[in-house]
């Protein structure tokens, strides 16, 4: 008799691979179907810091320190650590049973190699969050990687030296993809193909089983993971569904256990009809539009940039469009970041009509009007939620400037969107940033002169801004540091390289059978801390599955 494996909520084509012919009944796999908001651009943790990819990396890889289910950091590969009295040296002792998925021991040299690789100049994401490590700036500028202050004291001990005391350093290690280890032999043998199924060697609770572009990514339990006995879920399936409406349909059909988000126009109905499944809390993220300062019409035209910012009614957008508890944004740093007082522009307290009057004056001063209209294009990655926000923003601009503005939008898939951002092929681009940890620099470092897209999308350059962030980095006094960072944000926002629109709130659906899904301000949920508990079937009842 063939065994039958029931994969509750699993796409049939994937579930078929779980059934294996045996002479006796096999236990059913526990499968977790995650809506992940889109297609990952890469599976190399040192080449991206996107949210979609990071959700996957948290399952496939593990750093020295990790975030637990409640968002607090806890031991990862490092079982213990010590900090020197001056706060400049961190010494991590690795677990004796830490291994790679192929069974190789995980050693201190693996972390030395990985940190050097992450910080060295390459075409991927920026390692700006690691700038506090001794020698990092020099290595990022093209200097020798052996000058980086990450050393292997012995096979089980990693020592990291910093240039200045950094109280949030463990938060950086817990969250930044650049702090994740990669398997040197696999990378060097396979080059860019090391992330393919069958080639990837990782060290997280799960290993890569299958990934084809446009199809769900499948991860399975890592039998060599040091804490494998505490991992409840056997198989995690990340569904690359960019459209919240499609996600909602799959969720209702039982094919997703969680959604990445829900459609804006259904937030109210979902909150009332499914209050036990709707997760709606503020979290560490800001949604904004970036203006290309390296080309016309925004290059050297602050009046125009300010006019467009003033004309957006942020309060109306969060009340009428997003409708999920978001807050209007006038800067990059979200209000839930502790020990920081956000600087707000004077116009934030003004009524909308007064803002519009000033916006029209600045627009005319910038040289635009009905006789010389401004032609503008807004770029965003394909998503119903991005579309409705773009339509709201464009409606506000049309109301403010009438025939003086001809604005259109263009929607492209995420891969093309990232390519266009990388080469600054846009006038206005939709952007968002989710904080790796709760510190203002996570957001303010985006606008450093040395940062590249998808961080500094506008191409903003300010020596004073860079100087203030550098001073803040060397300050050990909380209030002084906070004041320096606030001054920097005030200088940057007053130049209008970006137009902050709102600070995010989570708006996802989580099935009641998903246990261990705990709210935290970063909205991170590694699958190793989650379990699936199916509803009990009454005696004589029938239990069905979405895929049998």
Account of the 3D structure:
This protein has a 6-stranded mixed β-sheet, with helices on both faces. A 4-stranded mixed β-sheet has the order 1-10-9-8, with helices on one face. It has a 4-stranded antiparallel β-sheet with strand order 4-5-7-6, covered by helices on one side. The protein is built from 16 helices and 20 strands. The chain starts with 11 loop residues before the first helix and ends in a 16-residue tail after the last strand. With 548 residues, the protein is of the alpha+beta class. Strand 2 and strand 3 form a beta hairpin. The protein folds into 2 domains: 217 residues, 3-Layer(aba) Sandwich (D-Maltodextrin-Binding Protein, domain 2); 225 residues, Dipeptide-binding Protein, domain 3. The protein is globular and about 70 Å long. Helices cover 28% and strands 18% of the residues. It is found in: Periplasm.
Compact summary:
This protein has 548 residues and is α+β, with helices and mostly antiparallel strands.
Strands, helices and their partners?
Layout: H1 12-15, E1 31-35, H2 51-60, E2 65-67, E3 73-75, E4 78-83, E5 89-94, H3 108-119, H4 136-140, E6 150-154, E7 157-161, H5 169-175, H6 184-190, E8 206-210, E9 217-221, E10 235-239, H7 244-252, H8 267-273, E11 278-279, E12 282-291, H9 302-310, H10 314-322, E13 327-328, H11 352-365, E14 374-381, H12 384-401, E15 405-412, H13 414-422, E16 428-434, H14 441-444, H15 463-474, H16 478-493, E17 498-505, E18 508-509, E19 514-515, E20 531-532
Parallel strand pairs: 1-10, 14-15, 14-16
Antiparallel strand pairs: 2-3, 4-5, 5-7, 6-7, 8-9, 9-10, 11-18, 12-16, 12-17, 13-17, 19-20
Helix pairs in contact: 9-11, 15-16
Domain Solute-binding protein family: 73-450
Protein name: Peptide ABC transporter substrate-binding protein
Family: Belongs to the bacterial solute-binding protein 5 family.
């Amino acid at each position: 008799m063939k065994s039958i494996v029931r994969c509750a909520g699993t796409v049939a084509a994937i579930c078929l691979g779980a059934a294996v012919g045996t002479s006796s009944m096999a236990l059913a796999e526990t499968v977790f179907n995650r809506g992940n908001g889109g297609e990952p651009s890469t599976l190399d943790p040192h080449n991206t810091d996107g949210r979609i990819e990071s959700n996957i990396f948290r399952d496939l890889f593990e750093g020295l320190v990790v975030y637990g289910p409640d968002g607090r950091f806890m031991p990862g590969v490092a079982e213990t650590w010590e900090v020197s009295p001056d706060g400049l040296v961190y010494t991590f002792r690795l677990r004796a049973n830490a291994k790679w998925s192929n069974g190789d021991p995980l050693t201190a040299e693996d972390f030395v190699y990985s940190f050097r690789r992450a910080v060295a100049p390459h075409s991927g994401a920026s390692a700006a969050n690691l700038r506090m490590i001794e020698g990092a700036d020099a290595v990022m500028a093209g200097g020798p990687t052996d000058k980086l202050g990450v050393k292997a004291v012995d096979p089980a001990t990693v020592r990291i030296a910093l240039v200045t005391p950094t109280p949030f350093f463990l938060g950086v290690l817990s969250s930044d993809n650049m702090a994740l280890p990669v398997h040197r032999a696999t990378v060097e043998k396979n080059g860019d193909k090391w992330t393919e199924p069958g080639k990837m060697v990782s060290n997280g609770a799960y290993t890569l089983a299958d990934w084809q572009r446009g199809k769900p990514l499948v991860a399975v339990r890592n039998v060599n993971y040091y804490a494998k006995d505490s991992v409840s879920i056997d198989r995690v399936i990340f569904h690359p569904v960019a459209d919240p409406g499609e996600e909602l349909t799959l969720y209702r059909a039982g094919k997703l256990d969680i959604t990445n988000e829900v459609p804006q126009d259904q937030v109210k109905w979902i909150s009332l009809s499914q209050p036990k499944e709707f997760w709606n809390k503020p979290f560490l993220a800001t949604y904004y539009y970036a203006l290309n300062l390296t080309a016309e019409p925004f290059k050297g035209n602050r009046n125009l940039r300010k006019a467009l910012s003033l004309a957006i009614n942020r309060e109306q957008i969060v009340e009428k469009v997003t409708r999920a508890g978001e807050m209007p944004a006038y800067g990059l740093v979200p209000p839930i970041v502790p020990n920081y007082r956000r600087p707000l522009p004077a116009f934030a307290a003004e009524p909308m009509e007064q803002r519009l009057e000033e916006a029209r004056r600045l627009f005319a001063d910038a040289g635009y009007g009905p006789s010389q209209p401004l032609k503008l294009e807004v770029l965003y990655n394909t998503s119903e939620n991005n579309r409705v926000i773009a339509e709201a923003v464009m409606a506000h601009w049309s109301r403010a400037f009438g025939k003086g503005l001809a604005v259109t939008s263009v929607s492209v898939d995420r891969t093309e969107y990232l390519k266009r951002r990388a080469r600054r092929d846009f006038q206005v681009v939709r952007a968002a940033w989710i904080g790796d940890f709760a510190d203002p620099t996570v957001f303010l470092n985006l606008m450093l002169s040395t940062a590249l897209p998808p961080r500094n999308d506008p191409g903003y350059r300010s020596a004073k801004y860079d100087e203030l962030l550098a001073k803040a980095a060397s300050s050990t006094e909380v209030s002084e540091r906070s004041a320096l960072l606030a001054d920097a944000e005030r200088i940057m926002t007053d130049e209008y390289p970006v137009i902050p629109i709102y600070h995010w709130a989570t708006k996802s659906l989580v099935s009641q059978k998903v246990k261990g899904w705990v709210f935290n301000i970063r909205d991170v949920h590694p699958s190793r801390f989650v379990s699936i508990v199916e509803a009990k079937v009454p005696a004589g009842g029938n239990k069905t599955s979405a895929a049998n």
